[in-house]
Design a protein that fits this description.
The protein has about 100 residues and is mainly alpha-helical. About 85% of the residues lie in helices and about 0% in strands. It is elongated and about 50 Å long.
Length: about 100
């Protein structure tokens, strides 16, 4: 990332939103109920979506060459789809 105010700010945001899903997923695995599990997975979904947002800004602004970011962005979108589907499945199996 460029050593600029915006580059540094976005880098910090990606570190936060990009590492949070793993911790929140771990918390979901220890959920006390179906509702708790679903709510924690929703937090995972939100953090992945935020990461997608920042990666999109990097690509759209040309902050980094698209070819350096595209694979990360695509992988993040796929993770988001997996978590969204997991939430849908959990809701269909739970009494929520």
């Amino acid at each position: 990332m460029p050593n600029t105010i915006s580059g540094n700010a976005i880098s910090k945001q990606i570190v936060r939103s990009g590492t949070s899903p793993a911790a929140n997923y771990r918390a979901a695995c220890l959920a006390k109920s179906d509702k708790d599990f679903i709510n924690k997975l929703k937090m995972v979904e939100e953090e992945i979506d935020e990461t997608n947002h920042w990666l999109s800004i990097i690509i759209d602004s040309g902050m980094l060459p698209k070819n350096r970011v595209q694979d990360l962005y695509d992988e993040s979108l796929e993770l988001g789809k997996i978590v969204t589907k997991s939430i849908t499945t959990a809701k269909s199996r739970a009494d929520v």
